[in-house]
Amino acid sequence: MNLLENIREGLRSIISNRLRTILTSLIIAIGITSLVGILTAIDGIQSSVDNSFAGLGANTFDIQGPQMYRRFGGRSEKRVPPIDYHQAMTFKRRFQQGENIAVYAAVTGAAQIKYASKKTNPNVQLIGIDDNYLGIKALKLQSGRNFSATDLEKSLNVTIIGNEIVTTLFDRNQNPLNKEINILGGKYKVVGVLEKKGGFSGGGDDRQVLVPLENARAMAANRTLTFDITGSVPNMGDAETAVDEARGLMRQIRHDPLGKPDTFEIKRADELAKDFENITSYLRIGGFGIGFITLLGAAIALMNIMLVSVTERTREIGIRKSLGATPKRIREQFLIEAIVICIIGGIGGILLGIGIGNLISTVVSRGNGSFVVPWFWMAIGILVCVSVGLFSGIYPAFKASRLDPIEALRYE
């Protein structure tokens, strides 16, 4: 009996026991679905984050004020003052490496915007910006225009609003441009509407209102605003040099003592992406571990089913041995059956895993991520299926091949 005939015999055995094959394949399919699904979801979320950072590029960096108390020699010192307006504008004027520098300040994250009888929830981000902010932050206008030099110099009451603000305050067919909305008690004319961004940011970019920087300072009144800076360089190769120059310049402006830590933070866009990629690598390890445990349970269940199959077919094995089948051929038949069942379940599990994984990533990224086909994880899934089939079938196959043909023929 050759190998081809053995394969046919194994397939005939699988077809003749359809219910057992389906139930066993479902066990494997669930394990593969958990493995491929989790890893696909992680890849989809990673893709969404990559798309979010792609707009900023690797040649941008952010300079932010201190985020916590600093400690020197084990003693807590007073909070380091934030970057103020004059420091930010001095940096923008003196920095030589970058073509574009954007200075901006968050006035509040709990503003309520009104128009006529309608109003938003008190969760709108109110930000004061300059004319470079939209370009550097990769915010595109759906309609209208950016702030002009006149708007900024004369502190005109003009505003650019996010897409969610438009849908909340205006009717579907109503054009928001040139309409006056109420921002913290003042009337501002809408001159621009941002494109819907959504995505991994959680919709925050769609729920923001932008005003000229000087207007933001006036709105803050007696409160101290923290001014942040985002810079970009024309070539990615110059990014490291630009960051070093920015650090040196800001230390001069902030009068940081020699040998003391910076009183500000510089973050590059590609560093944020790398940090998230490191996190997702740990998530992949965890997801693979969960999938492996599920598959281990499926392998044990398959082994049990194969042992039952050996017991049920003891007489058949005796007949085949009496006709000249060698122990090797008997082992091959049972291993082939186990592997085929695993592959059938694996293909179903891969398809389910891709669908469920992309659904999860779409929900988490709010539709911003692209559909991911994880070819690598699909190949791993098939390889795992074959491995599970071998692991589950090898002991039952050896048990079947060692049966005494005479005793097997007597088995009832």
TrEMBL record:
Chain segments annotated as transmembrane: 21-42, 285-310, 334-356, 376-398
Main localisation: membrane
Source species of the chain: Larkinella knui
Pfam families per record: FtsX, MacB_PCD
Domain ABC3 transporter permease C-terminal: 290-405
Domain MacB-like periplasmic core as annotated: residue spans: 21-247
Name of the protein described by the UniProt record: FtsX-like permease family protein
Keyword presence, Cell membrane: yes
Superkingdom to which the source organism belongs: Bacteria
Signal sequence coordinates: none
Sequence similarity: Belongs to the ABC-4 integral membrane protein family.
GO cellular component: plasma membrane
Membrane association type: Multi-pass membrane protein
Subcellular location: Cell membrane
